[in-house]
Write a structure and sequence with these properties.
Layout lengths: L5 H4 L2 E4 L1 H4 L10 H6 L1 H7 L3 E4 L27 H13 L3 E7 L8 H6 L13 E2 L7 E2 L3 E2 L1 E4 L4 E4 L14 H17 L3 E5 L19 H10 L3 H15 L8 H13 L6 E4 L16 E2 L2 H4 L6 H16 L9 E3 L8 H4 L6 H14 L3 E5 L20 H13 L4 H11 L39 H5 L5 H14 L1 H5 L1 E4 L7 E7 L4 E7 L5 E4 L9 E8 L7 E2 L2 E4 L4 E8 L1
Parallel strand pairs: 1-2, 1-13, 2-3, 3-9, 9-10, 10-11, 12-13
Antiparallel strand pairs: 4-8, 5-6, 7-8, 14-15, 15-16, 16-21, 17-20, 18-19, 18-21
Helix pairs in contact: 14-18, 15-16
The structure holds alpha-D-glucopyranose (GLC).
The site of alpha-D-glucopyranose has 9 residues, from loops.
Length: about 575
């Protein structure tokens, strides 16, 4: 029996509730819809769900501006609907983690309403207040980070939108209130949390100004038009310099320890996953977060064997160096904040093949995989064409800033906005070839437009009926992973470390050795691993091949097909 925890062997699937399934036909996803799709999720072969925020919210940041931490958004249903969803998920052996936003609340949260009402109310010190803006800090979403409140004749700080005031985490009452909310959902039986933007919780106590000669709108615009290597380098430098005093501060470690202690009061190995790539947030491997995302893997223009090898070497070495040896990797290539895998890592010629390779990568690498809803059917980014369609406030703010303040032509501004807004990767899930992709009834306008490519086979129903679809491919790979002890728990051993075209590695445990080869090119390769230590005098037994290999055993000498995904068990004697 494996001694691993459930969250180490599980595959997680992120549900973006507004766009997942519209059960009551009002154009917005809801719990009824999600619950109706649980059989689909179970049939996929995933093990756990991460639900993006489902709390009451004025939706300035699509739910990441919470106005009540112990309730559900009425457009998603009632608390009973939530409980039913949780219960039905557990019945199907699907765990559920929620999204926990610690850095800020909505400006409509009663805590903030009270805090801003006067300078001496009981919650006066629950947020970050100053008599005047102490520096030139920017909000990463909408301009100045300090916003004036006439009631107090003071300014409050917000790292994100002005509708998302930062909580003052130096105040013990804030902690107590938030830990109560954390317990509320753990008491109901949820299996853990994904922790939103933890790096932004504390600010530089000296309030050191940034030294970038631009404001946020100018920097975004500069970034959009940066082309030469020099400009691209400068753009990266500026982004770092602009925000470096507003995140990554030391206090987060102690806070994560406190939160971990709260979660550990509960049985069932409840898990904390940080939205950060900093391995230090795992503490000693046992006292802070169990997982943080391997974002450096996806922070690239192109997924290449060279990039993956370098990433794995750096990442796994850091994790192995954790004092207790109890660190665990966590890989993903997409979520609700970034361009969809199919679009972002495609090359317009071989998008379908690359999407399959990248799915195989996430599902075979060492660590816990996170998938984003819709990637299993190859959903792509959808470019909005009119500013009235934009729901992501960060996008509409940018549009108006560059049109009004910088004189950019509205057509050009819309093209740039469509590209930068996260709406493009949050469009409703495509369930069928029926009107509105089966997400909402035909006569309803969904909250965001539906990507019309649902008519061209990018939908669940058509792909369920097509054995060679991407959906079947995901199911197949998930099955292979589930049935292979080494793909879940094996060590990573890189093979062939120079090819720019294919990535080859072993996953090895005391139970099994598995060979994985991902050919990121259209070339054919004659491979010979018969002298490789782990494969000497052994045969290969195909567990999966996108090139339709027969399941016979053969020597580790073979021809790798273009774009092939090949997974085989190494069989000795
Ligand atoms: C996280 C979320 C993102 C949100 C932001 C502010 O990065 O993933 O969607 O806008 O935090 O809460």
């Amino acid at each position: 029996m494996s001694s691993l925890k459930w969250w180490q062997t599980a595959v997680f699937y992120q549900i973006y509730p507004r766009s997942f399934a519209d059960g009551n036909g009002d154009g917005i996803g809801d719990f009824k819809g999600i619950t109706e799709k649980l059989d689909y999720l179970a049939s996929l072969g995933i093990d756990a769900l991460w639900l993006s925020p489902h709390f009451p919210s004025p939706n300035w940041d699509c739910g990441y501006d919470i106005s009540d931490y112990s309730n559900v958004a009425s457009e998603y249903g009632t608390m009973d609907d939530f409980k039913l969803f949780l219960d039905e998920s557990h019945k199907r052996n699907l765990r559920l983690i929620l999204d926990l936003v610690l850095n800020h609340t909505s400006d409509e949260h009663p805590w903030f309403v009270e805090s801003k009402s006067s300078r001496d109310n009981p919650k006066a010190d629950w947020y970050v207040w100053m008599d005047s803006p102490p520096n030139n800090w920017q909000s990463c979403f909408d301009g100045e980070a300090w916003t004036y409140s006439p009631e107090r004749n003071q300014y409050y700080y917000h790292y994100f939108m002005k509708q998302q005031p930062d909580l003052n985490w130096h105040n013990p009452e804030v902690k107590k209130a938030m830990w109560d909310a954390v317990r509320f959902w753990l008491d109901l039986g949820v299996d853990g949390y994904r922790l939103d933007a933890i790096g932004t919780i504390y600010e530089d106590p000296n309030l050191t100004p940034h030294n970038v000669p631009m404001n946020l709108a100018q920097l975004r615009s500069f970034s959009d038009t940066a082309k030469t290597p020099k400009e691209i380098k400068l753009k990266e430098k500026y982004w770092h310099e602009m925000f470096k005093n507003q995140w990554g501060q030391a206090g987060v470690h102690d806070l994560m320890k406190e939160l971990r202690a709260v979660v550990d009061e509960y049985d069932g190995d409840r898990v904390l996953v940080g939205e950060d790539d900093n391995i230090d947030y795992m503490g000693n491997g046992q006292d802070e977060l169990q997982l943080v995302f391997n974002f450096p893997l996806m922070r690239t223009e192109k997924i290449t064997p060279t990039h993956i090898r370098k990433n794995q070497k750096e990442r796994l070495t850091q994790i192995d160096n954790l004092a207790s040896g109890a660190g665990w990797a966590c890989n993903t290539l997409g979520n609700h904040d970034c361009s969809r895998i199919h679009t972002r890592f495609g090359n317009k010629l071989h998008d379908a093949q690359l999407a399959r390779l990248n799915a195989a990568l996430v599902l075979t690498m060492k660590g816990t995989p996170f998938l984003y809803n819709g990637e299993e059917i190859g959903m792509t980014d959808y470019m909005l064409t009119d500013i009235s369609q934009v729901k992501d406030t960060m996008g509409s703010w940018y549009y108006h800033a560059i049109v009004i303040d910088m004189g950019v032509h509205p057509e050009e501004a819309m093209l740039r906005t469509a590209e930068m807004t996260r709406d493009k990767n949050r469009t409703p899930m495509q369930w069928s070839n029926n009107p509105n992709a089966g997400f909402s009834p035909a006569d309803v306008s969904p909250w965001l437009p539906i990507n019309p490519n649902y008519k061209d086979g990018v939908n669940v129903h058509d792909q369920e009926n097509n054995p060679s679809s991407l959906l079947h491919y995901y199911k197949h790979l998930l099955r292979v992973r589930k049935e292979s002890p080494s793909l879940k728990e094996g060590e990573y051993i890189p093979l062939q470390t120079t090819s720019k075209d294919y990535f080859a590695f072993l996953r090895q445990s005391d139970k099994q050795t598995v060979l994985v080869i991902l050919n990121y090119s259209e070339k054919v390769f004659e491979l010979d691993f018969s002298r490789t230590k782990e494969m000497k005098n052994a045969n290969l037994k195909t567990l999966f091949s996108s090139a339709q290999r027969r399941p016979d055993q053969f020597e580790p000498k073979f021809k790798l097909s273009p774009f092939e995904v090949f997974i085989a068990e190494v069989v000795r004697g």
